[in-house]
Design a protein that fits this description.
about 170 residues; flat; mainly alpha; about 0% strand; 7 helices
Length: about 170
């Protein structure tokens, strides 16, 4: 699949969360979104005089209106392409949100075990005291690994043949 075909396919299937997306389709679309973000950031710099991205601290870069609108417009197709990509590897699309699920689990456990007061007061020592601290430390390690696991799944080869989510995109004739 070519770059332009992948972009057209993902935009045509803007909010389609069923079916499968090939590895090339997904990663070409991710590249398109990344390049589009850079281009719209440059447009914001020219039109609104926003500062350039600091290479030392890119997170400090303010998002301009054009870049923000582009990111908002690309959120749903990027999620749907990732969802379909997970289907292509034989996994449920909800696993795309695995890091978020882990964060919710850690927050819930921390709230049940130590309450949110130590967290809000900045007293992390009280939260990590006792056996709950070991569980939270292990959960934080899982949280650190979870985005890497999702990237691994997204980069995995397609499941051969049809699966419960549809036919293999490599075997479908267009």
């Amino acid at each position: 699949m070519t770059f332009s075909r992948a972009v057209r396919t993902c935009l045509a299937r803007y909010a389609t969360f069923r079916g499968r997306a090939s590895r090339a389709e997904y990663w070409w679309f991710v590249l398109f979104v990344l390049l589009g973000s850079v281009a719209t950031s440059l447009v914001d710099q020219v039109l609104f005089g926003l500062p350039a991205v600091d290479p030392v601290d890119p997170a400090s870069h303010p998002t301009g209106p054009v870049e923000g609108l582009f990111g908002l417009a690309m959120l749903i197709p990027l999620l749907s392409a990732g969802w379909r990509r997970m289907h292509d590897t034989g996994r449920s699309g909800i696993l795309l949100f695995y890091p978020v699920i882990v964060m919710i689990g850690i927050s819930t456990f921390a709230g049940l075990m130590g309450g949110f007061a130590p967290l809000l007061d900045g007293n992390f020592g009280a939260l990590f005291a006792g056996g709950a601290g070991l569980v939270i430390a292990l959960a934080l390690f899982v949280l650190f690994l979870s985005p890497l696991v999702v990237i691994w799944w997204l980069a995995s080869p397609s499941e051969p043949g049809p699966n419960t989510h549809g036919p293999n995109p490599h075997e479908v004739t267009s």
